[in-house]
Amino acid sequence: MKTDRNKPLALPHPGRVVLYVLPLPVALLFLSLGFVLGMTTSTASFQNLYFPFVTPSPSANKPSPPTSSLPPMSSAMHNMTDEELFRWASTAPRLDGTPYHRVPKVAFMFLVRGDLPLRPLWERFFEGHEGLYSIYVHANPSYTGSPPRGSVFHGRTIPSQRTAWGGVTLVEAERRLLANALLDLGNERFALLSESCIPLYNFPTVRAVLTGSGGASFVESIATPARYRPLFAARSNVSVERWRKGSQWFEVDRALAAEAVADGTYFPTFRENCAGERFCVADEHYMPTLASVLGWGRRNANRTLTFADWDPKRRTGSHPRTHGAEELTEELIGRIRRGGTRGNCTFNDGASGVCFLFARKFAPDTLEPLLRLAPKAMGFG
């Protein structure tokens, strides 16, 4: 007996529910139209769609991401351990740019002991530029203070560990800051700063130099045998010819930031070298040496964009000069912007014509003079 496929199929249960069995091509057409209409009319509901079959790791050999939740963008605090954090950050894209349109951001990473005495100056610097920057603060875990709710620094402190001057813990803190910043895919440039740092230009200028530098990183990397030990050759194949020294304060692109976070070859040797030694000064060697052994070459401008006065007549022991309120003038800011004692800002890199974007060390009592000088000397406030 021939069956009519277009005839209603009556089911025997109450309610007389009727099903129409449509030809397969027609059913697929209706299904496709329904999906397209749903996507176009309800785009907002798909913005956070998660496809569990898409692995977040670019390689099947890499460990799976931890089960901890990523921190919300409104806060830098989370409950991940360092191991989980670094595992997450290692799966993040390493290259600048993504398939979708968005404005690249600069991650400002503050490595501090506690309070930020120059915070009001930085708040004026960031004012009006929301969405173009991210802030991360690594403070001593014993510090319990917090900026007011209205501050751009509120909620931007990351889970931290104790640090000590001259120790490898400073490098650990730098990598921890980089790992947290890498979780935000909008961050393309990463600048390490201290509580005594100040901006020398307004935000648009700083961002333009960093994001428009042709992708170059700014890590001072000077060849020297100082503090080199054969352990580095034995453990990680770092010869004295590839050993480097430079300023701790760097400005890097996303690719080099990701290399530092994922580094399981060189950093363990630095940690072993510093075991039981209080002043191994690893912070002056790790990033410069990493850029050297990775062959960063022309991708590194081989200089820092953070000024410090190391003049032997003005420095204090192993630390650069600290500028006080009594010497803070528009002329001082201008001299630093022109290169300080260097006096030459011609470089073959993306920041040619700009000697420095930041400067340190500025004492807490310089806040009021800086706020007065900022509109004229630095172009903001």
UniProtKB/TrEMBL annotation:
Membrane topology: Single-pass type II membrane protein
Name of the protein in question: Uncharacterized protein
Keyword presence, Transferase: yes
Subcellular location, record wording: Membrane
GO cellular component, one term: membrane
GO MF annotations, alphabetized: glycosyltransferase activity
Keyword Hydrolase: no
Keyword annotations from UniProtKB, A to Z: Glycoprotein, Glycosyltransferase, Membrane, Transferase, Transmembrane, Transmembrane helix
InterPro entries per UniProt: BC10-like, Glyco_trans_14
Phylogenetic placement of the source organism: Eukaryota, Viridiplantae, Streptophyta, Embryophyta, Tracheophyta
Transmembrane segments: 17-37
Domain of life according to the entry: Eukaryota
